[in-house]
Amino acid sequence: MKLNLLLVVCLLCTSGYGQHYETKKIYVYSFAKMVQWPDDYRQGDFEIAVLGETPFFEQLTDMASKKKLGERSIKVVKVGSLAEFKKSHILVLPANQSGALADALKKVGANPTLIVTEQDGFGAKGSDINFVMKDNKLAFELNQATLTKHKLKAANELIRLAILL
Q1: How far is it, in rounded angstroms, from Cα 116 to Cα 126?
Q2: What is the pLDDT at residue 110?
Q3: For the chain (length 165 residues), average pLDDT per consecutive 10?
Q4: What is the pTM of this model?
Q5: Torsion sign over Cα 65, 84, 52, 111
Q6: What is the pLDDT of residue 165?
Q7: In three state form, how does the secondary structure of 74-111 look?
Q8: What is the rounded CA–CA span in Å between residue 20 and residue 137?
Q9: Rounded to the nearest 5 degrees, what angle is found at the Cα of 104, between the Cα atoms of 92 and 82?
């Protein structure tokens, strides 16, 4: 079922990833389901933090109001700056916040937070998952080394669909 959901998402992706927030929210939900967090991160609400102003925040908030991860509610929070960021399962750095990647990597350190970006080259620069365009379709890069550093493990279905770095 998980693989089928991501395959449908891949088929929906057509062109230009800057405005594909509807599709990206489905991807982020799939990432939440297909990444394994350490035991102490499997309690309470599942939190997604979004840095700065972006239409992506509204899409994720809409998704969170309709979906759950098992029995867990999904909570989406907006952080105005990395100084406000404390802890979350996923930290989304939209393209307009691309200059904050180095600071986000420092802030997260080795903590189990999945860093999701949408800027060319950021998968290789330390993002765990980075949205990219491939053959005029939305795709994502998966950096397994940074996942390991963040004590996270991707499901085989996710690995099979990713561009591996």
Answers
A1: 10
A2: 96
A3: 43 46 93 96 96 93 95 97 96 94 97 96 96 92 97 97 94
A4: 0.88
A5: negative
A6: 87
A7: EEEEEECCHHHCCCCCEEEECHHHHHHHHHHHHHHCCC
A8: 10
A9: 85
- Reading the block at residue 20, the tokens are 């594909």
Architecture of the domain spanning 2-164: 3-Layer(aba) Sandwich (3.40)
CA 90 to CA 44: how far, in whole Å? 14
Tokens 């759950």 belong to which residue?
Answer: 68
Q: How far apart are CA 91 and CA 152, in angstroms?
A: 14
Here the tokens at position 30 are: 């799939």
Residue pair 31/159 in contact (Cβ under 8 Å)? The answer is no
Handedness of CA 95, 52, 105, 101 (dihedral sign): positive
* Residue in this structure with the two tokens 């939900």, named with its chain if needed: 29
Q: What separation, in Å, do the N-terminal and C-terminal C-alpha atoms of the chain show?
A: 25
pLDDT at 8: 40
pLDDT at 19: 57
